[in-house]
Amino acid sequence: MVVLADPSELRYEIGQQLQQTWLETALGWAQQAPSRGNARPATDHRWDLIHKPDGRLILETE
């Protein structure tokens, strides 16, 4: 897991959301990786959480 562009004033809030909401989702996604075959060329080899102005983290999908 990599966190990019994490403003210092939002670190606690974002960390709480990651721990309470998104960590379990990320682990479940990673557990299913072997069934997706070769992850590098696959379109579902990663997902991004975006911090919205209202404070929510949302999953960005293409």
User: What separation lies between the terminal Cα atoms?
Assistant: 19 Å
Mean pLDDT: 78
Strand order within the widest beta sheet = 1-2
User: How many structural domains can be distinguished in the coordinates?
Assistant: 1
Summarize the amount of helix as a percent range.
25-40%
Q: Based on CA inertia axes, which overall geometry fits? A: elongated
Contiguous helical run count: 1
- Give the SSE order as H and E letters: HEE
Strand percentage: 5-15%
**Radius of gyration using CA atoms only:** 13 Å
Structural class assignment: alpha+beta
Structure, described:
The structure is a single chain. The chain is α+β, with helices and mostly antiparallel strands and 62 residues long. It has one domain (8-60). It is built from 1 helix and 2 strands; from the N terminus they run αββ. The chain has one helix spanning 11-31; strands at 48-51, 57-60. It has a two-stranded antiparallel ribbon. β1 (48-51) and β2 (57-60) form a beta hairpin. The longest helix is centred in the middle third of the chain and has 21 residues, at 11-31.
